[in-house]
Amino acid sequence: MEDIYALSDVQIQKKIGDKIKATRLKQNITQDSLAEAASISRSSVQKAESGEIKSFDTFLRILRMLGMLDEISHLCEEEQLTPGEYYDMVNSAKKSKRKRAVGSLYANKEESEW
User: Please, which pLDDT band fits residue 30 given cuts at 50, 70 and 90?
Assistant: First the structure.
């Protein structure tokens, strides 16, 4: 597999469009039926397949209808904390608790006018 970071944005979009088209054809789905199922226009499907993905919403709808959301599922996963990171987080929360003043208000009763 080639290094994705070496590709331009246009090349990445073209590869994604090719993958969408190949998956649609493999599943024997027409552009019209995909567009109808995803509640988008046929031209949006055509543009996505040619690499012109302008709307993230359209992209997600197409992936959902083709059963390809698992391709991006790792982007939705929460990051797992290591035990050390968890320990640091708990300790920093404990340190930031407010502390009460200890009787400094009544320390000098004789100097008070009251």
Answer: very high
Model-level pTM greater than 0.70?
Answer: no
Looking at the 3D structure of the chain, how many domains does it have?
1
Q: Is residue 4 classed as helix, strand or coil in its secondary structure?
A: helix
> Measuring CA to CA, which residue among 67, 54, 55 is closest to residue 20?
67
Distance CA 51, CA 24 (A): 15
Is 107 domain-assigned?
Answer: no
Backbone conformation region of residue 28, classed left if phi is above 0, alpha if psi is from -120 to 50, else beta:
left
Question: Quick check: 92 and 78 in contact, CB under 8 A?
Answer: no
